[in-house]
Amino acid sequence: MPGILERIKDIEIELARTQRNKATEYHVGLLKAKLSQLRKKLMEPGPGAGGGKGEGFDVMKSGNASIALIGFPSVGKSSFLNSVCNNTKSAISAHEFTTLTCIPGLLEYNNTRIQLLDLPGIIEGASKGKGRGKQVIAVARSCDMVFMMVDSIKGDVQKRLLSKELFDCGIRLNAQRRDVYIKRTKGGGMKINATIPFNKGLNNKLIAHILQSYKIHNVDIVFREDCSIDEFIDCIEGNRKYLPCLYGYNKIDNLTIEELDTIALDPYNVVLSVKKQLFVDFTVEKLWETLDMIRIYTKKKGCAPDLTEPVILKSGSSVQGLCKSIHRDMIKKFRYCLVWGRSVKHRPQTVGISHVLFDEDVVQIITKESSAN
Fold first, then answer.
1. CB of 318 within 8 A of CB of 357?
2. Regions of the chain short of the pLDDT cut 50
3. How many independent structural domains does the chain possess?
């Protein structure tokens, strides 16, 4: 393990001192590919690697979605959890490292149950195993989104350091996997095709060099979207976790109005003061929006819809997704359904299984069995 850490450090130093231009792009690309491979080895469990989640980190997922509370020690994560979750108490203190295990809490909002996981404070070097960092980040990978809380006074610095730690562990915040098709073949060499021009530093020669560093010599690749060197390496690795993230700047009572305005301009930022209960409700609303979920209410024929227990789906889900969430055999029995809500022009409207639903739609599913009766 120390050997891997030393090699990672050497490559990071070389990357930092290498000027970025066309003459060095191949060298930089190969360094980044090698760095990614070393980080992957570092995260793999092995003898003396400290594998396993450890006490307090084996938390059963509950609710309709889960949010990881990430931040440096003493930024207010535990106070926020206690403030918004009923019947949950996470230890609070003025000194650092009060939270040493994963504390779950349940937030009920908009008829939705959201699990908040208060994780121990991350320190710099967490991606390399410092301060139980691997266990913390492993839990974050299993969640639906990240709520990164920072101290408003040094928020930008903390935000940058935390984002780097998560990046080094394969977590990509507020990003999407690039549309790159990669299929390894038994022969035929490298076949590289692109439906778009490259404008972010990639070219066929560099792509071939990076693939060779991964010992990939026979492959079909189609680029349907332009991407950078890092994004292409992510596509090769195939194990990246793409998560939405909301950045919470806590303790805003220490800032001026002008500083607050500057922070709030970023759509991914929220400002709040948990201690003085400023903008806490607004933060919860933004968490709900960032999760990007929709509530679908179902009804039986001749009955009013049940508006207390919605089916929770991801935004953009279709009737097929609703059927799957109700019962795995529902799709086989499906005939058509009636929909009331913003996703249709008429009330009700008959739609098929591919119809895309909107938040708070009401759906009555007609099965082959019920229509036969």
1. yes
2. 1, 47-56, 93-99
3. 3
